[in-house]
Amino acid sequence: MKLKVLCIGDIVGRPGRRVLADELFALIKGREIDCVIANAENAAGGSGITPQIHDKLLRYGVNLITLGDHTYRKKDIVPILETSESIVRPVNISELAAGKGVAFYKTGKGPVVGVVSLIGRIFMKQADCPYSAVDKLLPKIASQADIIFVDFHAEATSEKIAMGYHLDGRVSCVFGTHTHVATADEKILQKGTAYITDIGMTGAHDSVLGRKKESVLKSFRTQMPVPFEIATSDVKISGVIVTVDSNSKKAEHIERISVNAEHEDSKNLDSDDGKPEPVNGF
Fold first, then answer.
1. Which one from 54, 70, 153, 180 is the annotated catalytic residue?
2. Tens of pLDDT along 110-124?
3. Tens digit of pLDDT for each residue in 91-108?
4. CA spacing 20 to 30 A to 74: which of 30, 31, 99, 132?
């Protein structure tokens, strides 16, 4: 059986949420998508996620939510991480940290999609070995998921590429998040795993990684604390659509997508951002 899985790149702030609210259902219907995975660690004001945003993303059509280094930026998300069956934090952080590193979604066709979240270690905060963590996890979830997708939230392209080869033939897809810039290296690896180094950003692309250009330039030029305001222009959904044979578990096709917002007025979308980030930070 063929399954189409849509993986959506880092949702940044209200503009990223708005374009999903406006465009996602049509995209799901038009491309016959069976499962939607979205990285939402920047969904609340550009850093973190709130319970309200978690619920809204599910209503917009997202089935599984992945996070990254800003997982705990909004403290009120912790109870959701403990109870929701649809959201994951990186598996290779402390075993005592709130939440889980794998979640499952049963598609309308029957097969179950499992998603695993990993975080990198190069140019990132301290974390356990992602290779060892995923090696320990995969045998435990093999009987629970028909196909497995891995979101590797990492900075270094070398680390992401290495993970793709490490998991080739063992999962259906490895996709990268965190850098907010889509790469052009989507491919099917030799043993049948779909791979891309980064699936990009869902938010304002007339920006520096979703933040207003003027704010980021001022910070870089002056080296002074500057609020990184969320940009609002040229809003797009970025991601990939991966077609997988649920019987062989191998990917057959991977395609980068970019969907423009019909309008860019984010003022009419209710804010669940929580407190804004005070100074420089992505």
1. 70
2. 999 999 999 999 999
3. 999 999 999 999 999 999
4. 132
